[in-house]
Amino acid sequence: MPFVLNDLPATAADVAKHLEAAGFTESAPLRQTLALAEEVGEFVGAVRRHAGMARRSGPFSDVEAELADVVLTAFVTAHTMGIDLRQALEDKLAVVYARGWRESPPVAGAQ
Q1: What share of the chain is helix, strand, coil (3-state, %, to 5)?
Q2: Is the pLDDT of residue 110 over 80?
Q3: Phi, psi (degrees; rounded to nearest 5) at 47
Q4: pLDDT tens string 57-71
């Protein structure tokens, strides 16, 4: 069955349940926060490798996979902390769109 993006909260709850069943029960919110930071670091590393800014190169598929890890881990972290991430995203988007964008685009070559 194909994955549906709207299923992320339920999928995150399922992953959290499996983590708990596997014995990852101590300091779950802290564990998930650290896991999220680790996944972001892995994503940054994949981008650096793909951009040629690391000792070895890497394919764009690694960038995609690591970003997927970041999103999934963010949803698992939110579930573990009792955060309704769907609502938090909606609230944050309201702030982002209310603040507006640049008054004028940057001028090429200007500093």
Answers
A1: 70, 0, 30
A2: no
A3: -65, -45
A4: 999 999 999 999 999
